[in-house]
Structures are given as structure tokens and as C-alpha cells.
């Protein structure tokens, strides 16, 4: 079965490409490389020993998308492509709405023309906004995210639901990721953002490798056991496997829109993360406490029960695995 991955040279897409190829799927990738590099394709091939077809194109380019669907017998799509920096999206809302919404609309329009009506979409826990309980369940209503980035996810979920309402031949899986970290155990694939990272794990990696002097932990007066925020970190390879399970499930299900949280259900604090990274890798990560970062919540985590029951998916890797694999990748990336 041939699957198109939009944004497939990115962090989560590349790991998913590996898991799909290993499971016997054919993979086609389209990416405009705005936040990834073409040599990721070689790395995917190196890990799997399999071929991947790559198109350097913008998903908003209807002609390019039409060509991809004409040249390949695509049966389903996993839609990763999007801009994802929370802070940047507050400074550049127009670019974020344009990129994330237009790419989705062009994609589903092209799919409809080619009669491909199976899609898995990368959504985010951010769509929950602020809820009464930090344990997010799929039955909760979508809330108000703290950034335009998050709002694009809310809007795309709504667009996909409307697409299904208008044409019940669609099979749609919406995956709400919690906090993906870690890297492929080969050390070839991982997350290496350009410039100063916004997210915790890439920042820790840059401090451990002495590219940045020290980590600032944003706030230690939160309502959590050690005062630092708690999040549901999950290993990117576990997350990638969730996409396989979602695809398999769609094949065996009736048409419809299916929504799943992908997380471990076990929140960890910033301090726990830093301490685990230090001890597993036997390396120092100097840090100081600073003021809270605007928009951060004390804690939130997944109720992963639905994915466990319906997808037969469960995050298996530990925080130790996440820290070890992240550092293994970061060391490799420096050489
Ligand atoms: P990433 O930036 O590594 O990957 C996204 C890829 O999409 C990049 O390779 C980028 O070049 C490509 N892209 C962006 N706009 C494009 C366009 N218009 N046309 C073609 N390619 C385009 O990010 P990621 O961490 O792999 O995230 C993948 C998806 O998962 C995104 O939609 C993101 O919003 C979502 N998500 C990520 C996280 C996270 O913490 N990493 C959490 C929740 C949801
Ligand atoms: N943190 C620090 N110092 C840093 C960076 C982060 O203390 O230098 C803290 C944050 O305050 C937060 C925790 O580490 O408490 C995690 O922060 P991240 O930025 O890594 O992750 P977030 O939970 O803020 O956001 C992430 C993604 C969003 C997504 C959200 C929910 O970046 O895209 O998870 O899925 F919406």
C-alpha cells in the first residue's frame, strides 16, 4: 500500500516513514524543506534499506500536488506538513494561518479529485486549551489554544469534520500528540532545530553539548510536586508507531472521523527531565530558575485509554530511553 507523507522529511514524519517502510508500506514524501533537510531521505533509506520517492514541493501548490497524485497510486495520506513554533506563530499569525490552512485545503481538494479519501492528521494537545482537569480526554470539547499555531489545529480538525459531513466516504483519523521527544536509536534521525530552540529537549541537548551556556527553567512555583511544569513526554518512535496503528484501524473501520490522544498518560516535570538526562547520559546540564513563560499551564497529560483500546497502541519507551536517544542523536549531529 502506498502512503503519501506530507512534511515527511520533518521530525515526526521521518520517524513515521521508517516505521511504515519497515512494516512493508511504500512511502512517497512531499516536503518544501522549510524546516527540514533533503538528506533525511538518504537517512531513511540507510536505516530501512528501502526506496522512498521524494518530491520537493509546497503542499499549497495545487499543480505540484496534482502531479504527485497522478504519478503515484496513493491510497492514503498522513498530513504532517505545517509550521509549528508556538512563539513564532504569535508574531506571524498570517503566515501560520496561510501555511497550515491553505496546505490542508489544497491537500484535501487534490485527494478528493483523485478519489483518495483516507487521511491521518497531526493534531496537538494544544487544541484542548484550558480544561477543568489536566488529564485530557477526547470527549472534552476543543478549547481555546494559547497561540495562532494551536488555533490552526482547531480549525483543521473542524475542516476535516466538515469534509466528512459533506462526503461520508472519507475515513479520517485525527491524532492529538502530547510532547514528542527522543530520536531514532540509530542516531541518524532526530530533532535539531535551527537557532535557539523553544522546546525543552532540544534546549537541553544544546546545553549538554555546550552550544548554549545554561537552561532556564521557566518557573518553579507551579502547582506541581516539585514546582516545575509537568508534561506528557512521549518517544517519537512510539508516536510514529501510533500512525501505523491509526492507518491499520482506518482500513478495518467504517467511514468516519476518529480522534485519538497519543501520550503516555504519565506526566513528568521539567526537573525530572533534566535530572534523568544528566544521570542517563552522565553529563552536566547547568540550569537556573527563571520567571514563568507566558501561556504555560501547570500540567497537562493524555488519557490514552481510547488509543489503547481501539488502536491497540501504547507508548512503551521510558523517559530514560527518550533522554538517551536524544543525546545519542545530538552527539551524532555535532560530528
Ligand atoms: P517539523 O517541522 O519537523 O516537520 C514539519 C515538516 O513540514 C517540515 O519538514 C517542513 O519543511 C514541512 N512543511 C511545512 N510547511 C509545508 C508546506 N506548506 N509544504 C510542504 N512541506 C511543508 O515538525 P514535526 O515536529 O515533525 O511536526 C509534524 C506535525 O506534527 C506538524 O503538523 C506539527 O504541528 C504536529 N505536532 C508536532 C508536535 C511537536 O511537538 N513536535 C506536537 C503536536 C503536533
Ligand atoms: N521549558 C523550560 N525551559 C526551556 C524550554 C521549556 O523550562 O527553555 C519548560 C516549559 O516551560 C514547559 C516544558 O518545559 O513547562 C515543556 O515546554 P515545551 O516548549 O517543550 O513544550 P510545551 O508543552 O510548551 O508545548 C509543546 C509543543 C506545542 C504543543 C504542546 C502540546 O511545543 O506545539 O506541546 O502538545 F502544542
Q: What's the topology here?
A:
Blueprint: E1 2-6, H1 11-22, E2 26-31, H2 39-48, E3 53-56, H3 62-71, E4 76-79, H4 86-91, H5 93-113, E5 118-124, E6 135-136, H6 148-166, E7 171-177, E8 179-181, H7 200-208, E9 215-218, E10 230-231, E11 233-235, H8 236-252, E12 256-262, E13 268-269, H9 270-281, E14 287-290, E15 301-302, H10 305-311, H11 319-334
Parallel strand pairs: 1-2, 1-4, 2-3, 4-5, 5-7, 6-15, 7-12, 8-11, 9-14
Antiparallel strand pairs: 10-13
Helix pairs in contact: 1-2, 1-8, 3-5, 5-6, 7-11, 9-11
Written overview of the protein:
The chain has 335 residues and is of the alpha/beta class. It has eleven helices and 15 strands. The strands form five sheets. The chain has a seven-stranded parallel beta sheet, sandwiched between helices. A two-stranded parallel ribbon has the order 6-15. Helix 1 runs parallel beside helix 2 and helix 1 packs across helix 8. The radius of gyration is 19 Å and the shape is globular. The two termini are 37 Å apart. 47% of the residues are buried. It binds nicotinamide-adenine-dinucleotide and uridine-5'-diphosphate-4-deoxy-4-fluoro-alpha-D-galactose. The site of nicotinamide-adenine-dinucleotide has 26 residues, from helix 1, helix 5 and strand 5.
Short recap of the structure:
This protein has helices at 11-22, 39-48, 62-71, 86-91, 93-113, 148-166, 200-208, 236-252, 270-281, 305-311, 319-334; strands spanning 2-6, 26-31, 53-56, 76-79, 118-124, 135-136, 171-177, 179-181, 215-218, 230-231, 233-235, 256-262, 268-269, 287-290, 301-302. It is of the alpha/beta class and 335 residues long. The strands form 5 sheets. A 7-stranded parallel beta sheet has the order 3-2-1-4-5-7-12, sandwiched between helices. A two-stranded parallel sheet has the order 6-15.
Amino acid at each position: 500500500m502506498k502512503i503519501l507523507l506530507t512534511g515527511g522529511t520533518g521530525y515526526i514524519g521521518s520517524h513515521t516513514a521508517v516505521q511504515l517502510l519497515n512494516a512493508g508500506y511504500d512511502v512517497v514524501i512531499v516536503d518544501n524543506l522549510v524546516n527540514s533537510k533533503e538528506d533525511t531521505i538518504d537517512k531513511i533509506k540507510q536505516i530501512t534499506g528501502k526506496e522512498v520517492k521524494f518530491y520537493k514541493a509546497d503542499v499549497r501548490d495545487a499543480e505540484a500536488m496534482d502531479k504527485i497524485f497522478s504519478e503515484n497510486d496513493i491510497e492514503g495520506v498522513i498530513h504532517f506538513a505545517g509550521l509549528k513554533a508556538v512563539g513564532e506563530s504569535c508574531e506571524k499569525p498570517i503566515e501560520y494561518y496561510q501555511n497550515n490552512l491553505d496546505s490542508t485545503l489544497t491537500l484535501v481538494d487534490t485527494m478528493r479529485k483523485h478519489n483518495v479519501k483516507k487521511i491521518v492528521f497531526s493534531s496537538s494537545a494544544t487544541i484542548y486549551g484550558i480544561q477543568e482537569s489536566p488529564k485530557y480526554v477526547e470527549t472534552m470539547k476543543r478549547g481555546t489554544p494559547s497561540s495562532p499555531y494551536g488555533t490552526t489545529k482547531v480549525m483543521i480538525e473542524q475542516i476535516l469534520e466538515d469534509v466528512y459531513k459533506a462526503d461520508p466516504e472519507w475515513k479520517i483519523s485525527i491524532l492529538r500528540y502530547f510532547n514528542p521527544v527522543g530520536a531514532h536509536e540509530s542516531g541518524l534521525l532526530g530533532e535539531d532545530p535551527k537557532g535557539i530552540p523553544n522546546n525543552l529537549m532540544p534546549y537541553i541537548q544544546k546545553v549538554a553539548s555546550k552550544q548554549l551556556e545554561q537552561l532556564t527553567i521557566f518557573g518553579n512555583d507551579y502547582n506541581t510536586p516539585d514546582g516545575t511544569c509537568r508534561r506528557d513526554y512521549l518517544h517519537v518512535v512510539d508516536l510514529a508507531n501510533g500512525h501505523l496503528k491509526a492507518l491499520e484501524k482506518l482500513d478495518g473501520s467504517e467511514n468516519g472521523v476518529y480522534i485519538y490522544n497519543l501520550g503516555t498518560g504519565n506526566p513528568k516535570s521539567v526537573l525530572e527531565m533534566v535530572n534523568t538526562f544528566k544521570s542517563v547520559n552522565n553529563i552536566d546540564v547547568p540550569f537556573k530558575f527563571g520567571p514563568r513563560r507566558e501561556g504555560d499551564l501547570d500540567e497537562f497529560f493524555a488519557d490514552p485509554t481510547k488509543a489503547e483500546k481501539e488502536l491497540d497502541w501504547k507508548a512503551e519507551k521510558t523517559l530514560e530511553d527518550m533522554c538517551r536517544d536524544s543525546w545519542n542523536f545530538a552527539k551524532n549531529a555535532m560530528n
